[in-house]
Write a structure and sequence with these properties.
CATH topology of the largest domain: Hypothetical protein af1432
Helix content: 40-55%
Shape: elongated
Structural class: alpha/beta
Number of strands: 6
Oligomer: single chain
Distance between the termini: 63 Å
CATH class of the largest domain: Mainly Alpha
Low-confidence stretches: 1-9
Strand order of the largest sheet: 1-3-2-4-5-6
């Protein structure tokens, strides 16, 4: 029968090994490192366990009675719930043929016996971390799609979010920002005006100029947006952008009147992208400006509203035709 020991708040590992002494040794090493360990003496017994639960990782021998490790791996990978479980072979069989067979079936790692505690724990930790990274990436990609739909619905300006992000990404590439930083920028672009959900619709859709009291309400949306996402861990990277994208280089922006380099760089970049799209889009209170007029406005407000470095990147993207292409693609969908 399968033995199970549960340790709260830790990853659960399934160890499959037919040698009783080796099974006990592996269990002791892994439990000593803080893992919950469940054990099985062959592949068939392991599959019985998998019918009722999903371990964080499977560590399995190859040569076992009833069902060997290769057969177990093939069964695990054929199940939807088992396709992403990290699977490590720990075996005395380390021939090229065995390794090729394991890789072809989808094994994640191969450890050859005898193995030290350090080698075992290092391999397990590495595979668990990689699995966590893949899960987080999948969640983030799914979240981006959902957030785009939500943000566009709240803004009531279809395709605004997509265009702002495209402009922002062009600027970020010009500035040679790495992929991780551009991912954070994407979330900021998607969510930058999410706080407008707290602004009365009568103000958002007003055809004429806003009164001073109405401006007070409108200027609350960066703070409200930051509050809305502050409790969501994977959106923490977007908070500085959401909060500060209406600050100005000369210190006359809102909500905190930050000046120059006090403003997060991502927010300074998004300010250029957001303002260009706002000027070239129809709004309730005015018609869109043409692209050339909007370009001149951006350039004329360098070192006042905008960071001069961001304006320089804007000019480079403009001269390569990137903003024209994004504009034409975005407006053709409307």
């Amino acid at each position: 029968m399968i033995e199970a020991k549960v340790i709260k708040n830790e990853s659960t590992l399934l160890v499959v090994e037919d040698d009783p002494a080796m099974l006990i040794a592996l269990r002791d090493i892994l439990e000593g490192a803080g893992y919950a360990v469940q054990t099985a003496v062959n592949g068939a017994e392991a599959l019985n366990h998998l019918a009722n639960s999903r371990p964080s990782l499977i560590l399995s021998d190859i040569a076992m009675p009833v069902m060997d490790g290769f057969q177990l791996l093939e069964k695990v990978r054929s199940r939807p719930a088992g396709a992403t479980i990290p699977f490590i072979f720990l075996t005395a069989r380390g021939t090229r043929e065995d390794i090729f067979t394991g890789k072809s079936l989808g094994v994640d790692d191969y450890i050859t016996k005898p193995v030290t505690s350090k080698e075992l724990l290092s391999a397990v930790q590495a595979r668990l971390q990689r699995a966590d990274d893949f899960t987080m990436i999948a969640q983030l990609m799914a979240a981006k799609d959902s957030l785009r739909v939500l943000a566009n619905a709240i803004e009531n300006k279809r395709y605004h979010v997509e265009r702002v992000n495209s402009y922002a990404q062009a600027l970020a590439i010009e500035l040679k920002w790495d992929e991780k930083r551009r991912d954070a920028l994407e979330f900021g672009a998607i969510l930058h005006d999410i706080g407008q959900v707290r602004v009365p619709e009568a103000i958002l859709l007003k055809a004429g100029p806003l009164t001073e009291d109405e401006w007070v309400e409108m200027r609350k949306h960066p703070v409200e947006g930051a509050r809305m996402i502050e409790g969501i861990p994977y959106l923490a990277i977007a908070i500085p952008i959401v909060l500060h994208h209406h600050e100005r280089w000369d210190g006359k922006g809102y909500p905190h009147g930050l000046k120059g380099d006090e403003i997060p760089e991502e927010a300074r970049l998004l300010s250029v992208a957001d303002t260009f799209d706002a000027m070239t889009s129809d709004r309730a209170y005015r018609k869109a400006l043409d692209k050339e007029t909007a370009k001149v406005e951006i350039i004329n407000h360098s070192n006042e509203q905008f960071d001069p470095r961001m304006v320089k990147a804007f000019i480079a993207c403009w001269e390569r035709g990137e903003f024209h292409e994004i504009y034409e693609k975005g407006t053709s969908k409307q």
